[in-house]
Amino acid sequence: MTRSHSIAVLPGDGIGPEVVSCALEVLDAAEQRFGFATERSEFSAGAGHYLATGELFDAVEPRLRDRDAILFGSMGDPRVTPGVLERGFILEMRQRFQQAANVRPVRLYPGVPSPIAGLTPERCEMVIVRENTEGAYVGRGSTVHAGTPNAVAMQESLNTRAGIERVVDFSFRLALGRRRRLTLCHKTNILVAAGQLWQQVVAEVGERYPEVEVDYVHVDAMCFHLPLAPERFDVVVTDNLFGDIITDLGAVIQGGLGVATSANLNLDGSAPSMFEAIHGSAPDIAGTGRANPAGAILSLALMLGHLGEGDAARAVEAATVEVLGGLPALSGAEMGLSTPQIGTRIAQIVRDGRADASLVPDSLLGVLASLEPSRL
């Protein structure tokens, strides 16, 4: 009987439909090569849909909840007030579907240039795990005397032991399947209450994983160490706000936003996980063929690994790396290939079985090794 997976596809705005189209072409090739099937349902969501209907996450939630996974393009448009889509759709999805861990691989692939002089792939291979449902992004805040010289704004950051513990335990299990080193990134000397809770949880959970070495780095120091000594880090766990910032710094180090990928993981199987490139909608280049679809295709590889299609995930990653290494530039007209041409080339390598596994000896599947305790 053919293995089958139910996938929700949200192309979104700007370059989202273009890069998702490439990812789906690669998915077609992976299905043909590795003998599984996907039932795909595409949903309208994002700025264009919101402007036409006023609908946000509420409208689509029931139709997404029973899917095995979500492949997400991008959202954003200058015509929509900042925060409307981010809070009304993306954060709503993360919180309602309890996508507790935002997992961001930071790895420099062979042939991909980094702005860090002398950086090699051997020195840059880590995973940053960001708590994805709490912190400063819970939306708790208020403003009084708005529009006057006496305006006061208050913004809360919420940290619960349960929320911290589930993402810390996941990070320890992830480290156990990798190089067995975990770093907590926070600002414990200033954010004393939240920092102490994070440190306490890391210390207590760490007792269950004595094989894993534990380290701590202030978030400001992390911005120094990350570009200069990325080899210091294996798995980094951090809170929502700090993770949002340092993962984008990591993306720059690994070659830019166009090649960076992410997984928003529900850790108990109660709702679907979501997989997306992190480059945003880039409306200024939408429709020009200048967007690099690698981030979306590598997100597809993460999704395939999550769904248990390990061979397909490795082939997709290896094919993507092979094509990336041959591009003269990673974005813009200088790439040498258009957006759809890159997708077609990667798909052909996957379909023909020509993906060179030596390009990714430590596959992205290592990121997902501890998604469930049974997978260790």
Question: Approximately how much beta-strand content do the residues carry?
Answer: 15-25%
Count up the helices.
11
Tell me the radius of gyration.
20 Å
Overall spatial form: globular
Following the backbone from N to C, one meets helices and strands in this order, namely EHEHHEHEEEEHEHEHEHEEHHH
Q: Gap between N and C termini, in Å?
A: 27 Å
- What kind of assembly state do the chains in view correspond to? single chain
* Biggest β-sheet: strands ordered side by side in the sheet: 2-1-3-12-11-4-5-10-8-9
The helix fraction, in percent, is 25-40%
Structural class by SSE content: alpha/beta
Mean pLDDT: 92
Number of strands: 12
Tell me about the largest β-sheet.
10 strands, mixed
Cofactor: Mg(2+); Mn(2+)
Keywords: Manganese, Metal-binding, NAD, Oxidoreductase
EC number: 1.1.1.85
Organism: Leucobacter muris
What does the secondary structure layout of this molecule look like, with pairings?
Elements: E1 3-12, H1 16-34, E2 36-42, H2 47-53, H3 57-64, E3 69-74, H4 84-96, E4 101-107, E5 125-131, E6 141-144, E7 152-155, H5 161-176, E8 181-186, H6 192-206, E9 213-218, H7 219-228, E10 235-238, H8 240-253, E11 261-265, E12 273-277, H9 294-306, H10 310-325, H11 339-352
Parallel strand pairs: 1-2, 1-3, 3-12, 5-10, 8-9, 8-10
Antiparallel strand pairs: 4-5, 4-11, 6-7, 11-12
